Amino acid sequence: MTQEARVSTVVESLTKAPRNIAFPQKDGRPQLISEIFGQNVFSFKQMSTRLPKPVYNTFLRQLRGNETIDKNTADAIAHAAKVWAMERGATHFTHWFQPQTDSTAEKHDSFLTLKSTFEKGFEEVECVDTLSGSQLLQSEPDASSFPSGGMRSTFEARGYTIWDTKSPMFLQEGPHGTSVLYIPSVFISYNGQALDEKTVLLRSSEVLAKNAIKVLDLIHDPENEHRVRQVHTSLGTEQEYFLIDRALYTLRPDLKITGRTLIGGLPPRHQQLEDHYFGKIPSRVLAAMSECEYELYKLGVPCKTRHNEVAPAQFELAPIYEEAMIAVDHNLLTMDVLHRVAHRHKLKVLFHEKPFKGVNGSGKHCNWSMTTDSGINLLEPTAKPEKNLPFLIFLLATLKALQDHGDLLRAGIASASNDHRLGAHEAPPGIISAFLGDHLTEVLDSIEQDRPVKAFNSPEMQSVRVGGTVLDLKVATLPNIARDLTDRNRTSPFAFTGNKFEFRAVGSKQSVSFPVTLLNSAVASALEEVAAELEKQKGDKEYASEEDQIAVIKHFIKLTKDVRFEGDNYSDAWVEEAEKRGLPNIKNSYDAFSRLREARNADMLEKVGVFSKEELHSRYHILMEKYAKDVRIEAQTLHTMVVQQILPAAFAYRKELAEGASMLKAVDAGAEPELKVLKELTPILTNLQAGIVDLEKQIAASDDITDDIAALGKHSQAELLPAIENVRSYADALESIVGDKFWPLPKYTELFLNI
Fold first, then answer.
1. pLDDT value at 21 more than 90
2. Distance from CA of residue 310 to its chain's centroid?
């Protein structure tokens, strides 16, 4: 790879013809989103029109957990799905599942089946298209080839994918006008252990629903109110990502192999002018965004918002909230479609949490709440939250989950890539705390202190920005606007934002299944405590009175005060204050993963039935091993780049300087400028070579740690990462000195702007 290749690629990226696609028309106009939405989804509506009514009703009863699908029902659904899919060009079907790789997996099988008939003693083979109920319900991938944390060995290969009946089947369009029927599934071992992300998410959703209903039954008068029969978690997942030119991407081995730049210095202008956020979307990016949304609408993904993010070349796509299980599926689909559509536009999408050092990284903000079967959001405060006792109970249950298991939630967002982002004054630190806002803080304080809520216009509240008031903009032509109940705190890892919590610390690259599973589990455990306290307060009464509920609310207000913080989570003062409160500050993944094995967390996860002891040990092993492997891959990649690209470029530049200085000396022209640069280069090169030797030593040391996964993770965190950063510091120093014509790698300036 030479500097000439870099220059020609930059020129090529600026002269590419834009990609144009024809959006579908109807009656001479572009189709509305509502007319496109879900057309590639085998939805409940499709099922109701294609299945006999008794079969469809049996399926609905199964969804409610009242019965299992029998063979006749499964065969009927499979046949209807096959016919629907083949009408749209499907030739194959696949069980689509979520192994513990932060991605998805699929194995395509054709509908082709050979059917034998015998006529007068002779066999005749006929080719037919079919999808049986048994094929719909389960398939069998090789379980030994996916991460299992020791639960599966090479000689124990059997595993099962099982159709997740609550997640609708859909079509993905393939080459040559064909498509594939996708069957969302869970993935378990031969012995029934969860090998995937979805099984544990479904378990956590069920136990949270059960405990939430238990609490609601205790506080609702059964004679006067509708009994809640189901509670589900709602989730809206904002996806941040970078887009760069794909040709330039191909010249960066670090981006291709690790997802982030291991070498590279900031250009003079990057994000410091704060002009990229919500700025005009580049036309090439807008074209890719628009096509991506079109593909997602067909898949029933409710895309809502698109915009520029803070860093150059960074963007965001946000959906409307859905049931958590569906939202997770849709987020994984969003990442897949973004990847494929960007490729068509000669762009590369980067989901790594920190692809570029020195500018903001990417997160995946998870907006989480709980909703009943009648559509009531249990985290909706209403106009008078101090009177909305169910809201306060569920709010405090969530805070209790953070108070008791904040370190567990920190483990759920830990990874080698997210470590570069968390605590970097662009994302929350490794301290899990909750922001409620001044209004809700005042409500909780007033209940705890047995006093009325202070009036918005009282002298005590003049310095407090509270909701429920009107803002007068002092411009006659502009309307007055209602102020929200809470301000936004962009520094909080877990902020209440009106009628939901925003879990902001989740990494952009990871599946949200695991962090949401841990959150659901912790809240389910807290709700069990709330239910026990309500039972204690109500005594022999049929349900807890208002006085009983207030007593329980006061109890949990006192228990959860330490986890509430209204200030700047990026500040050093908060780090000191959090330590006084006993909140852990977990700065790296190695320390975070160890919290999975702490008895307090492990016992809770086992007690609520989300993880078995074996599954939790497996999860710890997989996460720690992946962390160590990711760091090692980065170390080896950096070593190769420095030895094969950076040092040769610096040596060539140094040689040219030396030859120039020698010639100038020969004619007595003065070579001080060249000699000055040579003197700057020499110590950097010396230190870089020493750094490479140390990096080699640490890579070799990791080879010797084979049996102890914790020791391997510790070595990666304590030895390999510092060695990587040390080498990078000298390589970046060279980039700022070596002549541009010698530098082989596209620089940040080119990567940021060539889209």
1. no
2. 18
